[in-house]
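Let's inspect a concrete specimen:
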Amino acid sequence: MSAFRTGRPARLGQYLALLAYLAFLAFPFLWLVSTAFKPAPELASLHPTWIPGEPTLANFRQAFAEQPLLRAAGNSLAAALAAALITVAVATPLAHVTARRRGRLTTAATGWVVISQAFPFVLVIIPLFLVLKRLHLINSLAGLVLVYVVWSLPFALWMLMGYVRAVPAELEEAAAVDGAGRLRTLVSVTAPLLAPGIVATALFAFVTAWNEFFFALVLLKTPEKQTLPVVLTHFLGAEGVADLGPLAAAAFLATLPSLAVFALLQRRITGGVLAGAVKS
């Protein structure tokens, strides 16, 4: 009974800490939604309120009138989908080979994958720009997709490697005994068991590409090819003064695809990440 009593305050403290953390994470988004529906007088008020006194859609109409949001969203969607599909197509067989073949080379490759995630964007942007310029891929969505794939591939490979290790190797050995080749085994036996991990990896690559700003800003110069995060900066004036209402409305619309994807596939994402953390 004493252990139960001492456990309840600790559990209550954990729940309170979790609620505080969730409130901390939700605050920026809730404030963004509130700002998107506020009329101009409320935005200029010295005493901001949580809930708009007179909600309006004027900020959304102004945002669409001032900037080509639909075209930019189409560019972002095309780049994010292509990056996600290519990343999964490349990372899945690489993760399978790396996870099944143990050795010094595999260990070194895994270490390099982890270390590469610590490199800042600024460190690679100049050589990356020169390489893409030589390949004539500057100011093109194809070049941007290539950058997104390269940048997402290390983490995708690392996550899928852990998931492959959770798949019993005996299943693949049984398929080999039945005469299936490596490609057939990967497609027919291993890939279906990797489905949650593949979905989680694809969503990671998609959301990373959808939200990415720095590479798109540097590599895309033509307005017709710019992605949504870059177009959002056009709501800033020459002196850095933000057109707050339309900017909040456009930013709110830009967050909806990511939120919708995570809401629809939350269980698969969680299952893929947790299964990828299990070793056989």
User: Anything to note?
Assistant: Residues 87 and 150 are 8 Å apart (CA to CA).
